[in-house]
Amino acid sequence: MTYLAKPKIHHPSLPKNALGFTRRDYEGAVSTLCAGCGHDSISAAIIQAFFELDVAPHRVAKLSGIGCSSKTPTYFLGNSHGFNSVHGRMPSVLTGASLANRDLIYLGVSGDGDSASIGLGQFAHVLRRGVNMVYIVENNGVYGLTKGQFSATADKGSVAKRGAANTDEPIDLVLLALALGATFVARGFSGDKTQLVPLLKAAVAHRGAAFIDVISPCVAFNNHPGSTKSYDYVREHNAAVNRLDFMPRREPIAADYPPGSLQELTLHDGGLLRLRKLHDGYDPSDKVAAMGHLEAHRARGEVVTGLLYVHPDSPDLHASLDTVDTPLNRLGAADLVPGNARLAAVNAGLR
Ligand SMILES: Cc1ncc(C[n+]2csc(CCOP(=O)(O)OP(=O)(O)O)c2C)c(N)n1
Ligand code: SF4
Ligand SMILES: [Mg+2]
Q: Which phi and psi (to 5°) does residue 323 adopt?
């Protein structure tokens, strides 16, 4: 339970990152989720990614909505800023925070109900505006917290615990994110940390709206055979398009890949993304082809994972609005009240 504090003792031989922090410094409270819930594995991947990226925890702001998934920011990055908002409303709170202080790394954590059902409008606008953030949906196809109702990503024909069948078409969040203009779109699986950790690191290094749909099985309500969000289904039908390695700018670049299978991309902070192609001919810079690939594999019942689309030089919301470089929350009276002469000049320009 969350009232149980984790022991503060750190073993002196725990590995430290470049800032002198151990992995423990990136953890949060003890999780209260069901044992085996995919969401806990995603929390572990987030802890590992930020530890390895050498990001100081106070530079991160984690925001969420409502749901088991939206509870998880309590269980990681306990020394970061956090705001647990209203069901489906995380994106607008995150947008406001990002405009007020552009210096933080924004991590939006949501569920399929939170983003694809009640929050679909907010999901759409935060992606099309290019807010600089990492937006994670922990996608289990159900409302886990409220005991297993179908969400908008639930499979058509899926049968709930009490026998009701879902008759509605599911929303594919990565297809939607591509159509809406997200400039980094990926899908991971909570059971594949080897793939998820580099995806998270690359998403943090990306400037603009980075979206990761993480299939995250709910062991209490939607882990039955036939559910495309169950552990067995994703393991058996995972069609990964690439394997990633992400190297921050400061790391030496070692060349140990067979030619022809490798694609390199430099992200805006200078970090290098290496994509080992698993699917011949898959090009993550071709959005139209990515959409076709997703549709074709969905029709075959396969779950496509990996980095699906990236546009490394994309402008973000701050660039579109031409905001000042100084975070708005640090502007002083002299910047905000330029005086009567300046005001008169502005007014004269409008006459
Ligand atoms: C405005 C509003 N409507 C409904 C609810 C009830 N509610 C809480 S969580 C939730 C669904 C959560 O589903 P999801 O986002 O998929 O998260 P999960 O629990 O599956 O991780 C609902 C309907 C609420 N808290 N607020
Ligand atoms: S109900 Fe489902 S989503 Fe919620 S904690 Fe349990 S397994 Fe996870
Ligand atoms: Mg859910």
A: -80, 160
Query: Ligand 2: which atom is nearest the Cα of residue 38?
Result: 8
- Do residues 317 and 129 make contact, with C-beta atoms less than 8 angstroms apart? yes
DSSP helix, strand, coil percent of the chain (3-state; round to 5): 35, 20, 45
What is the 3 state secondary structure string of 15-63? CCCCCCCCHHHHECCCCCCCCCCHHHHHHHHHHHHHHHCCCCHHHEEEE
Whether 149 contacts 218, CB under 8 Å: no
Q: What is the 144 CA–ligand 3 centroid distance (Å)?
A: 5
Model confidence over 225-271: pLDDT tens digits?
A: 879 999 999 999 999 999 899 988 766 555 455 555 778 888 877 88
The rounded Å distance from CA 12 to ligand 1 centre is 41
Residue 148 has what DSSP assignment?
S
**d(Cα 7, Cα 22) in Å, to the nearest integer?**
14
Tens-digit pLDDT profile for residues 141-167:
999 999 999 999 999 998 887 788 999
Tokens of 169: 């078409």
Strand, helix or coil for residue 7: coil
Q: How far is CA 323 from CA 60, 328, 334, in A?
A: 21, 9, 17
Map tokens 């430099």 to a residue. 266
Tokens for 178, please give them: 């591509």
CA–centroid distance, residue 207 to ligand 2 (Å) = 32
Place of tokens 């969400």: 151
Q: Residues near ligand 2 with C-beta < 6 Å?
A: 33-34, 37, 39, 68, 140, 144-145, 218-221
The residue whose CA is least distant from atom 13 of ligand 1 is 143
